[in-house]
Amino acid sequence: MIVATILIMGLFLIIFEKLPMTDQRLRFIAIITAAAIVGRLLFSSLPNVQPATALVLLVAVFVHPIVGAIAGMLVVVLTSLFLGSGPFVLFQALAYATITSLGFVPFLRSRIVLTGYGFLAGFLYGWVSNLGFLVLTGFSWQAFLTLLVTGGTFDLLHGISNAIFIWILFPIFLRILHSFDEKRGTE
């Protein structure tokens, strides 16, 4: 599972390298990724409450799903330097790749729909991350179910914070995106 995760991350990087990218678009992605990193660090004292996932989902929907996945991977890897690191970081990166993969779906460009998806993405992110934990500690269905139940509160907090941050950041994100790319900065 660890090798598969590394291969998936490598594939995402290769695809990202082949995407047409202007300097302006790269600057925009860097600014949003930096904001997600700072937001995750600033809110680190509140369990699973942070704007990083909301920003990553906004990038995935309005720029490109692969770009959102790469931004999410950067957020996880760079914040792990401050918050703690370990093999679980790979699975957190995989979780971001998983939740951003639906970014190409056009109806997610609606504020209400993306807010709802952000809520569900909090749970999906937690479940993918939990799979990584189980792989590293020895997989059993009982352990997996226990982890889902005990992690449910944290996944709920993540989902609620995603919904709140998406609702707040959606119009701001579109205005910033519009200033960088007039074609993409609209709902």
Structure description:
- The mean pLDDT is 89.
- This protein is mainly α and 187 residues long.
- It has helices spanning 2-18, 23-42, 52-62, 65-83, 88-100, 111-137, 141-180.
- The chain has a single domain (2-180), classed as Arp2/3 complex 21 kDa subunit ARPC3, CATH 1.10.1760.20.
Q: Could you tell me the mean pLDDT?
A: 89
Number of helices: 7
State the end-to-end CA separation: 38 Å
**CATH class value:** Mainly Alpha
CATH architecture: Orthogonal Bundle
Measured by DSSP, the beta-strand proportion falls in: under 5%
Number of domains: 1
* Unreliable stretches: none
Which secondary structure elements does this structure contain, and how are they paired or packed?
Blueprint lengths: L1 H17 L4 H20 L9 H11 L2 H19 L4 H13 L10 H27 L3 H40 L7
Helix pairs in contact: 1-4, 1-5, 2-3, 2-4, 3-4, 3-7, 4-5, 5-6, 6-7
Q: Can you give keywords for this protein?
A:
single chain; Arp2/3 complex 21 kDa subunit ARPC3; globular; mainly alpha; 187 residues; 7 helices
Question: Could you give a quick summary of the protein structure above?
Answer:
Helices cover 79% and strands 0% of the residues.
